[in-house]
Amino acid sequence: MPFAASAGAKLLLFPLVTTGLIALTDVSPPIAQAAILLSALPAASSSYILARQLGGDAPLMAAIVSGETLLAMATMPLVLSLLR
Q1: How far apart are CA 63 and CA 27, in angstroms?
Q2: For the whole prediction, is pTM greater than 0.85?
Q3: pLDDT tens profile 1-16
Q4: What's the mean pLDDT in 66-73?
Q5: Angle 58-83/29-39 helices, nearest 10 degrees?
Q6: Which of 1, 19, 70, 75 sits at a 20 to 30 Å CA gap from 26?
């Protein structure tokens, strides 16, 4: 359940919220595209290191980073196709 919530929020919800905020503002198209692409990226691998060093759930973070990276192979082309 934590993985599904994390992946859904990061790979789907965050890009949708970013798109909505961009629609409400007067942002140039190249900046809007960059913001949407950056919001659709998976979790950073450094988050595993932080979780391990700060006493967090490192195995869960490793699963989230790995899973989101694999799922991003499907979601990134979708986001790119929507930007055209």
Answers
A1: 35
A2: no
A3: 888 998 889 988 999 9
A4: 93
A5: 150
A6: 75
